[in-house]
C-alpha cells in the first residue's frame, strides 16, 4: 500500500468501472478523492458503497467544455487543489469496429471523451500543481492504443494512441515543475459492460483463443488497474515519468 495521506485526487468518469476502483483505491491509500461522472444513477449507486464513503462526487458531462470549466471552478472555490489527476473517462462508446462503418460523429465523440476531456482537465488542474511544485497525472491508455484491438475500432485505437503520445510530451514539459505524467494501458478488464461487449463481438471459440494468448491465463480485474494507478500517483515514483505501463497479463509486450 502506498500512502497518499494529505493528497487530493481528481478521477474522471469514476462512478463505475475502472474509475470507481481507482477512486476507491486512492481513497483507501489516504487521499481525499473527487469523482466526476455524468450518470446520476451511477453516482447514486457508487456513493452508497462503504469504500466510497469519503469520496466527493460531482455530476458533469466531460464532453462539454463549459461543464468542465464550471466544475473545476466550483471545486477550486470549495478549497480543492489537486495533487493527482487521473484521466480515466473514455472508451469506444460502442461505435462500430469496422473502419468503413465509423462515421465522423463516431470519431468526434470518441476523440472528445478520450482526448479532449483529458486535455481540458489537465489544463484546468496543472497550474495548481505548478504552484505547489508537485503533481501526478495518470492517463488511461489501452492495449488497443499500443497494439491494436480485436474488438474495438480505429477511432478508439487512434484516440488512445493520442493520449499515450500526449503523455510523453507532457512528461517533458511538466517534469521541471515536479509533475510526472504516465499512462496505464490495460488489456480487457472484465467489467459487466466489457463482458457484454465481448459476448456480442466474439464467439466462445474466439474468447477461448484470446484467453489462451494471455500468459497469466485470465482477464484483468479492476483492482489490477487501480494498483498501477496508485503506483504512479505515489510520492515515491517521482523519478518515473513519460512511461506507458501495460496491465494486460502479458498479452502485449514490448522491449
Ligand atoms: N474496461 C476495459 O476493459 C478497458 C481496457 C482498456 C482501457 N480502458 C479505459 O479505461 C477507462 C475506463 O473504462 P471503463 O470500461 O471503466 O469505462 P465505462 O464505460 O464503464 O465508464 C465509466 C464511467 O464513465 C462515465 N462516463 C461516460 N461518459 C461520460 C461523460 N461524457 N462524462 C462523464 N462521465 C462519463 C460513466 O457514467 C461511467 O460511470 C477508459 O478510458 C477506457 O478506455 C478500459
UniProtKB/TrEMBL annotation:
UniProt cross-references to InterPro entries, sorted A to Z: NAD(P)-bd_dom_sf, Sc_DH/Rdtase_CS, SDR, SDR_fam
Matching CDD domains: SDR_c
Pfam families, per database record: adh_short_C2
Gene3D superfamilies to which the protein is assigned, alphabetical: NAD(P)-binding Rossmann-like Domain
UniProt record, GO biological process: monocarboxylic acid metabolic process
Domain of life: Bacteria
Family per record: Belongs to the short-chain dehydrogenases/reductases (SDR) family.
Protein name, as recorded: SDR family oxidoreductase
